[in-house]
Specification:
The chain is an alpha/beta fold. It has four helices and five strands; from the N terminus they run αβαβαβββα.
Amino acid sequence: MNTLKKTVFLILFSFLLSSCGAITKSVANKKLTEEKGAIPVEFGKDDTTTMIFITHHRSYNKYLKKNVKKIYKGKYEFVTESEFLEDEKYKNTDIYRFIFDYNYQSAGYNYSKQRDYLYSVKKFSILDRKTEKLYKSPMTSSYWSKLQKVYLQKLNEKLISEQN
C-alpha cells in the first residue's frame, strides 16, 4: 500500500508541475506582445539587424542557446557582457540594435523575517539601443525557460510578419 501512495503522489506531483508550466506558457502568450510593451515596435523591420543574447552562467546559457537555435530564425550572436562592452564591433547600433537579457526580480516573502525575499526570478527584457528604450516582460516565472521560449516565439512571429 505504501508503494501505491508514493506512486499516486509522484503522478499528481508530476501533473502539478507540468500544468504550472502550461499555465506559464498560456499566460505568456497573452502578455508577451508589442501592445503590452514586451516587444519593440521597430523589431524586425530591418533584416540586417542582429539580436544580441547576453550569456551568463553555464546552466542559463545551456537553455538559452538551445531555445534560440530551435526557435529564433533571425540573425543573432551569443555574447558575454564583458565581450559586448569591450568589442568595438558592438558599438554599431544599426547592426546590433537589440539586446535580449534578463535581470533578477525578487519574489516570495518570508514574513517572519521582516519581508526578506525567499528567492529571485528572471525578468526578461529587450533593449532597443537606438531609442534607449527597455521593453520588459510584464511577467516572471520560476519556469523561466518556458517563458523564454514563448518570448522567442513571439519575437520570431514579429520578425516574420515584418519581413513579409
